[in-house]
Design goal:
heterodimer, A: alpha+beta, B: 2 domains, 3 helices, elongated
């Protein structure tokens, strides 16, 4: 594999959290999208943690860009402080709502429907007990 | 409630619709969707880069929080700042985000 492919850049941000509506999306209601509307990831349903995980996922490109600039020492102290504060608000504040629920972009609904149909056929991983009752190591 | 604690890992998946599952030891976090033209090496590489970036998000956030803490301390005692440590953590997070060893 060429270095250009091995170290390809991720989809440019800022990424967007899109809340999906409709019963076919009951396994995952939050989609991470690129600014172009291209789907990037489906956030797994985890009680109480799905929305915070989605915010963190969507912030990943911005976090990386900021940390890269810090590593490159390309920011003044004031810029560092302001940037860090803004990013922490974006990631941590529950009021940072996703886009209003609605239909996904054209063509995406079919793709997601297929995904979730496939998903329901296989085992669904959820929160598991720390150890199975029989004392074995479980399935992993 | 906060996000699922890290570390998160990007595990290659053999699903028809996604190439990577983002997960902890116990919990699914997300599934990185296969891009439209996934047969092209470049699209596969971008999907892998997205997966690595997402898996690094908790470390990136932790590095940022440390940075902010120290920046606040700078105003009180600039001499006590370990800027090298911040940069080392930033470098580690960036390397993970970019899928480098």
């Amino acid at each position: 594999m060429s270095p250009a492919l091995k170290y390809a850049r991720p989809t440019p941000g800022p990424w967007i959290v899109k809340a999906l509506a409709g019963h076919v999306f009951e396994l995952s209601k939050l989609l991470i999208m690129a600014p172009s509307g291209a789907p990037i990831a489906l956030v797994a349903a985890q009680p109480g943690q799905m929305a915070p995980n989605a915010r963190l996922l969507a912030s990943a490109p911005t976090l990386l860009a900021f940390v890269q600039r810090v590593a490159g020492k390309g920011l003044t102290r004031a810029e560092l402080r302001a940037g860090a504060r803004a990013l922490l608000i974006q990631v941590d504040v529950p009021g940072q709502a996703p886009e209003p629920p609605g239909a996904p972009p054209r063509g995406l609904r079919d793709q997601l429907t297929d995904i979730l149909k496939t998903r329901t056929k296989g085992p669904t991983r959820t929160q598991r007990p720390a150890s199975p009752p029989d004392g074995s190591n479980g399935d992993r | 409630m906060s996000h699922t604690p890290g570390p998160w890992t990007a595990r290659p998946s053999f699903s028809m619709h996604w190439d990577y599952a983002i997960e902890t030891d116990d919990v699914d976090i997300a599934h990185v969707l296969r891009l439209a033209h996934h047969d092209e090496p470049r699209e596969l590489a971008i999907g892998r880069a997205n997966a690595h970036l997402i898996a690094a998000a908790p470390e990136l956030l932790a590095a940022l929080k440390t940075l902010r803490f120290i920046l606040e301390a700078l105003d009180l005692d600039p001499i006590a700042t370990d800027y090298t440590s911040i940069l080392e953590r930033a470098d580690l997070a960036i390397a993970k985000a970019e899928g480098k060893p």
